[in-house]
Amino acid sequence: MRRYSNTICIYLPKQYSKTLALISLVASASAFAPTQFGARTSTQVFIDFGKYDDQLWSNDAKKDVYATWDPASPRSTMNFNPFETFLGNSPDASGIFPGEPFYKDPQRPDVSYAIMLAEKAEFAERAASPKAGDTPGAPGCKNGIPKN
Question: What's the predicted TM-score (pTM) here?
């Protein structure tokens, strides 16, 4: 070992210096390589979808969801009014409206004019006698939006 103006020089045999150079090259290259072991991080966001997700979103399914809906509980994918509208749009099977994150276009049943008239009569009956607590601003309703 020699000292040159505050610098320490270490003499290594050639085989050690080549090995050291190879190790440093591999270490620096592996810093940018993807890992092949260990825990993986996921960027996927998990959401609980409604009871009728990926199933037929028929009037009977909506009536079933409406029967379990509690307007006093906070709105969620399992607790929502399926007949509520937002800017003229109906929610999907999870209570999510078009344009909102995680909206999925529901599977819709075939319709006819006669079926639509029967549903219109049911809607009028439901509007005449709403569930207790079904008022604008209730926790189970879409807040701040008047019902259509």
Answer: 0.63
